[in-house]
Design brief:
The chain is mainly alpha-helical. The chain contains 21 helices and 2 strands. The chain has 2 domains: 7-190 and 257-455, Up-down Bundle (Growth Hormone, Chain: A), CATH 1.20.1250.20; 505-560, no CATH class.
Length: 561
């Protein structure tokens, strides 16, 4: 196949995956705007309508780990298509529903389909692109699409509800889902089937699904009925019991659902914690700001969506150009920068006015958008780097689950903080919104601190330098593991230089890092102490040209030529 044809096909494959991911994230937020209209038309109370959101969240969060493992075992393309078909059928059913029971059931099936699509889409990206700059760029676009989809749901939901009907927020998914499911067999490569000796642990799958679903239910109901309500306490007890039973079953199973070696990876643990904090500030921020615009500033749903839209635009830019930034500074420094930027944006939003129209302070949502999209992109990169293709689906399920749990916590905690400060649970106030933004700033600052501590983790000990050059050339030292490197750079040439420099040119009295690179660059350019030796007369205009001293990057003079 010619190179141009292969590149074009790779681009179409990525576009298809991004469309599916956009549809899933869009549907998570687009229905929020339609809840009042749904309640009026179907004649149900607000507590019942809330289950349209809660049902989707429970199914989506509870089945993500199972969906990721199923993609690894039964084929990513196959599960991707099955998820699309289930999601599309449930969207059609929800758009035509005439009673709340059918609508809530459709939303639960929608969440189950999304739980299959999300990890399959992520694993299709990580297995279709080689680990390095190409994969980092693709993951940046994936994170940017997710950021835009979440914010676009607010805008598109307001437009559809105001101009047509609430049913359009469901029916808009149908043609997109059908086209995506039809194009998938043509564009996506079929992954290998079930590996020999591997099978799905049904008992562990059921336990982890019950555990996560009960936890999401408990957190969701805490925001509606209170944290000490009987349903919330019962759901927490069920979640804890299921978690204990899950870990006991996994310890004895020969092919566990969550391999212990995978869960011991520091990068995956860091990415999961950061994703949980990201979901917390992102999920709660959208709800609180929507109430602030509509109840404090008296804006329409459409104006509310347009006011939040810059967050998605800047978020898309951050994800699209995140690969370049990561190649220059390192992905972990990107995580520190994006977490700090989000915290700064929320800090500005703590000064929101109590009345008037659109305030220039609301431009701080662009800082939040940059921090949110950059953090989402960075966590996926560090979580999937160095993971075998057979485990990419479960990695996608784990990091998506952590974000979903964080979103459920944020959607319950931040509005509860706002209501407590406002002393009126029925209406939002500027003081309550400011308090919620302060809590979101604390979560973003904690994410930046965790990323900074992770970036400062000790580097791998350098390999001892061999005294015999021949032996060293015959048996070169193995490169350091990417997950243990101090600052992983996702460019193939840069990563090779970092690994080779750390192993072959390390100083025993100093860990390799930025000072080594500065000395190397200075030596290449003849700067500072690495300039020409006095009296060498090696300038091209001198009598003895081409006598430049070549120095080792550690500063040692090697030879002349």
């Amino acid at each position: 196949m010619p190179a141009t044809t292969a590149t074009r096909r790779q681009g179409l494959r990525l576009a298809l995956i991004l469309v599916a991911a956009f549809m899933v994230v869009l549907d998570f937020s687009i229905v929020n705007v339609a809840l009042p209209a749904i309640g009026r038309e179907l004649g149900v109370a607000a507590t019942t309508v809330q289950w349209v959101i809660t049902g989707y969240a429970i199914a989506f969060g509870g089945l993500l780990v199972l969906g990721g493992r199923a993609a690894d075992l039964f084929g990513r393309r196959r599960m991707f298509i099955l998820g699309l078909l289930a999601f599309t059928a449930a969207s059609l059913s929800g758009g035509l529903a005439r009673d709340p029971v059918l609508l809530i059931t459709s939303r639960i099936i929608q969440g189950a389909g999304a739980a299959v699509i999300a990890p399959a889409a992520l694993s299709l990206i990580t297995t279709s692109f080689a680990d390095g700059q190409q994969r980092t760029r693709a993951l940046g676009l994936y994170g940017a699409t997710a950021s835009v989809g979440f914010v676009a749901g607010q805008v598109l939901g307001g437009v559809l509800v105001q101009l047509t009907s609430w049913r359009a927020v469901f029916l808009v998914n149908v043609p997109v889902g059908i086209l995506a499911a039809a194009a998938a067999p043509l564009l996506l490569a079929d992954s290998a089937g079930r590996a020999a000796g591997r099978r799905l642990d049904a008992r562990a799958a059921a336990l982890i699904t019950i555990c996560v679903a009960a936890l999401v239910l408990a957190v969701s109901q805490a925001g509606v009925a209170g944290g000490l309500s009987p349903l919330s306490l019962l759901a927490l007890a069920v979640s804890a019991a299921s978690a204990l039973a899950f870990f006991a079953a996994e310890r004895r199973h020969p092919d566990p659902l969550l391999p212990a070696g995978l869960m011991r990876r520091p990068a995956l643990r860091t990415a999961s914690v950061l994703n949980l904090l990201l979901g917390l500030w992102n999920g709660g921020e959208m709800l609180v700001l929507s109430l602030y615009f509509q109840q404090v500033l008296r804006d329409s749903p459409l104006a509310t969506g347009l006011a939040i839209a810059p967050q998605g635009v800047i978020g898309f830019t951050a994800g699209a150009f995140g690969a370049r930034l990561a190649a220059r500074t390192g992905i972990r420094r990107v995580l520190v920068l994006t977490g700090a930027t989000a915290a700064a944006g929320f800090a500005v939003l703590t000064q929101l006015p109590a009345s008037g129209r659109y305030s220039p302070l609301l431009a701080a949502v662009m800082l939040v958008g940059f921090g949110t999209a950059g953090t989402a992109f960075g966590t996926v990169v560090i979580a999937t780097a160095g993971v075998a293709g057979a485990e990419q689906g479960i990695v996608g399920g784990v990091i998506n689950t952590s974000r979903q749990i964080g979103a459920a916590i944020g959607a319950a905690a931040l509005p509860a903080i706002a209501a407590t400060v406002s002393h009126d649970p029925a209406r939002a106030s500027a003081a309550g919104t400011r308090a919620a933004m302060l809590a979101a700033a604390a979560a973003a600052a904690l994410a930046a601190f965790i990323a900074w501590r992770s970036e400062r983790a000790p580097a791998t000990a350098p390999a001892p330098r061999s005294s015999a050059p021949a032996a060293a050339s015959a048996t070169p030292a193995a490169p350091a593991a990417p997950a243990q490197m101090r600052n992983v750079r996702f460019s193939s040439t840069t990563t090779h230089w970092r690994q080779g420099h750390a192993v072959h040119h390390a100083r025993p009295d100093r860990t390799p890092g930025l000072p080594d690179r500065i000395r190397h660059l200075a030596a290449r350019r003849g700067l500072g102490a690495h300039g020409r030796v006095r009296g060498d007369r090696s300038h091209p205009a001198s009598r003895r040209s081409r006598r430049d001293p070549v120095r080792h990057r550690a500063g040692l003079r090697l030879r002349r030529f």
